[in-house]
Design goal:
about 5% helix; four-stranded antiparallel beta sheet; globular; single chain; mainly beta
Amino acid sequence: MLSIGGGLLAAFNASVHSTIAGTDELPAEQQRASRNPPAQTLLVYMAPPTARIVAALGARVTSMTLAGGRILVATATCPNLERYDATLVDHSVKDIISFPTDIISSDPPPTVMELEGWIVGDKHWGGIPLTGYREAVLELGSERSTTLYTYKYTLATGPREADVEKYEVERGFNTIDLSSRRSAIVSMRFREAVPKARIRLYLG
């Protein structure tokens, strides 16, 4: 996390920990989910009441700093592996990316998030900043009819004071336009778990 411009720049890493061969120390579903990150690594700038996605990367961020009027972001391509998968040699590709400081106020990058229903169950998921996006479309492939609740809030109000809206999800393919909520943070919840659901969120 980096303090800049009166706000905070934080990295939400796509893959921090993962397993390959497996371990008896973590639930099987948690290991399975760790092998398929739902999104790219996202850099999010937070200056209450807003949060804004400012960059999408293919590697996990290991550190950030300011130097010479630029934001330097160090990355590595390999997640932290559990002890049974750990190797003697670090085989990840490391890089340092330089961003201008005005990235904190630039247009957000297009990105896609994709996951399956068994990962989220009937719990809240998301917490995705839509500020700056012109288009936000949620695509759902569901094996049965259900209800999807969306929660709109900001860093100032928080999720407990969110505006709630519900959408009826039919069996099969559904498209939900979330563009009207693009000035805030959005999280979601199914009325009941839909394990085989395919969830895809496009932001552009």
